[in-house]
Amino acid sequence: MSATLAGRRLLVIGASAGIGRAVGQAAVRAGADAVLVGRRRERLDEVIADAGGGHALVADIADADDCTALVASAVDALGEIDALLVCSGTSGLSLLRDTAQPEWRQVFDVNVIGPSLVTTAALPHLASGAFVGYLSSEAVGRPRHGLVHYSASKAALEETIRGWRTEQPEVRFCCICVGATVGTEFARDFETDVAASLFPSWVAQAQMAAGMMEVDDVGRAVVELVDTALAHPDIDLQDVTLRPPGPLMESADVIMETFEENKAGQP
Predict the structure, then answer these.
(1) Angular region, 138: left φ>0, alpha ψ -120 to 50, beta rest
(2) What is the pLDDT at residue 243?
(3) What are the distances in angstroms from CA 229 to CA 23, 163, 236?
(4) Interval 235-266: pLDDT, tens
(5) Considering the entire predicted model, what is its pTM?
(6) How far apart are CA 194 and CA 56, in angstroms?
C-alpha cells in the first residue's frame, strides 16, 4: 500500500528521531504539508532535507508553554490540522528501587502530560474528520525489569486516550501500540552495564519477539494508517498494534547486539 496524503495537513510531534522521524519523512514523501516538531533543530533540518519538504519547529513537550506555542505555530503554517501524531517518548533504564523523582517526572511529562496538553491546544484547530494518533508500547500490561516507570507512563497515556474519546466523541483518537523496533534512539540513555544485567530477564519472561521491525517500515505503516483514516472519516480506528511477527526470542544476545550498534551510531 502506498499512502497518498496530498493536500493533507499533519502535525508530527517527536519528529527529530526514531519512529517520529520516520513518520515525518514518510508523511512528507506521501505529499502531506507537515509541521515536524522536535527538540533538535539540526536533526529536524536533516529530516526535511531527506524528505524534500516540511516545516521544522523546535519545541519540547515536557514544557507546558511549548505545548501551547507549538500548536499556534503549526496553525500559522497549516491552517487547520487534519492529523495530529504524537510520536515522542522517553525512558531511562532503572529498577524501581533506583528510580528517583526526576526520572518519574520526566517520563510522565513527555509520555503523558505533554501529549495531553498538545491535544488540548489542538482541539479548536482540528479539521472535520481529523485523526489524532499517539504512539504507545507493547510493554503496557507486561512491565519489564528496568522499564516499569516507562510502561506505567504509557499505561497512563492509554487511559488518557480513552478519556479523550469519552469527553470529545466527535474526534477520532487512536492508540498505536508499537513493539520492538530497530533504528530508534529509545535506548540512547541506557547505561550499558545496566542493560546487560536486565535484558536477559526480558527474554526469560517471554517478553521479546525474536525479530525486530525496521523503523522506516513502522513510519510508513503509521502514515498508511493515517491515510486510511482520513480517506474514511466515518470509520473510527481506535486501537492498532504493530509488532514483529514470529516466535519469541530465546537469548538476549540479539537485544544486546542491537543496543550496542545503536549506541555506537548515536552522536
Answers:
(1) alpha
(2) 92
(3) 15, 20, 8
(4) 999 999 999 998 777 667 767 777 666 665 55
(5) 0.90
(6) 35
What are the residues facing 126 on neighbouring strands? 81
On whether the CB atoms of residues 3 and 224 are closer than 8 A, the answer is yes
Give me 255's grid cell: 537485544
CA 79 to chain centre: 23
The alpha-helical segments, DSSP class H, found in the chain are 18-29, 41-51, 64-78, 101-108, 114-122, 148-167, 192-204, 215-231, 253-264
The per-residue pLDDT for range 78-89, each reduced to its tens digit, is 999 999 999 999
For the cut 90, the answer to whether the pLDDT of residue 46 exceeds it is: yes
Give the cell for residue 60: 519540547
3-state secondary structure of 81: strand
Q: How far is CA 71 from the centre of its chain?
A: 17
pLDDT for 41: 94
Q: For 99-108, which contacts have Cβ atoms below 8 Å and span 24 or more sequence positions?
A: 99/148, 99/149, 103/149, 104/149, 106/62, 107/149, 107/150, 107/152, 107/153, 108/153, 108/156
Residue 235 · residue 132 · CB < 8 Å = no
Of the candidates 221, 257, 19, the one whose C-alpha atom is nearest the C-alpha of residue 135 is 19
